[in-house]
Write a structure and sequence with these properties.
about 20 residues; mainly alpha; 2 helices
């Protein structure tokens, strides 16, 4: 999930959203 990692770098979001 490359997109998930990109979002993490942009702003720390809860794993709940990363899962989906």
């Amino acid at each position: 999930m490359s997109l998930a990692r990109s979002l993490l770098r942009c702003r720390p979001v809860p794993p709940s959203q990363l899962v989906d």
